[in-house]
């Protein structure tokens, strides 16, 4: 599979340079783990339409959805090295590479989605964007991904005590591993595409995600107990290889930035509708949604902050986030 992905990526590189320099048409490749129609896929497609229109066809965007180019960790390497030009992923798999990206991943730091929007659309969002440049990518947009919650195949979770001993797949970030440990459960980071069979075969009891992912990855079929603990309100990130972005003319850079901004509004709208649709769908299919005692979860998170928010930059950022009203 890995070899196939690499081969495919190689062919794509060859395919992207069409035409001569005077009349160049460049197809930019973007990866997404989600299926066609998912709000992030549609957000990037919308960005691509605007870019194509406003550059009179000099640039277009091909979205390789459904993890066609590989799992997020691998595609992050591809966009950093320039094998692909664009990528839409969660922020969490960047946590080990971009220190500032851990701030939005911290459990219960954002009070609500509105609070998250204010922070990410403001000065702290800009600070995080700047930090990503050190990893060789330019952040074009932060997209919505709602709140992540735990679900499992064993039992309903009503309090932290119910989490004890359960095995959860977490997204690939140490913050999430330590969060699960702090709740008395066991965490296994693994690629998204392996979660369904992991739950089915009992390698893990469950995972954590938002309603649209729980729905479209069909995890609700194998893990029916969804507990709305809403431990993180973690945005997605849409990035572009920095060397490719830097080569654009200043006018084209503006077009890309403006198109990305407009795609955020579109994605947020699509997201809100998808959350409702997915929740209704999984409930109709027999998922049992419980709302656990959240305060217990919040109180258990102290060790995560003590371990990860250690340097002055992060301490200040956490304070700044809390101060945003
Ligand atoms: C989803 C997110 C994906 C992926 C996935 C995961 O919510 O949109 O990009 O990160 O979670 O858990 O791997």
Plain-language structure description:
With 325 residues, the protein is α/β, with parallel strands linked by helices. 47% of the residues lie in helices and 19% in strands. The strands form 3 sheets. Strands 1, 2, 3, 4, 5 and 11 form a 6-stranded mixed sheet that branches. A 4-stranded mixed sheet has the order 9-6-10-12. Strand 2, helix 2 (39-54) and strand 3 form a beta-alpha-beta unit. It is globular and about 65 Å long. The chain starts with a helix and ends with a helix. The model has no long low-confidence stretch (mean pLDDT 94). Bound molecules: beta-D-galactopyranuronic acid. Beta-D-galactopyranuronic acid is lined by residues 33, 72, 89-90, 145, 171, 192, 209-210, 213, 236.
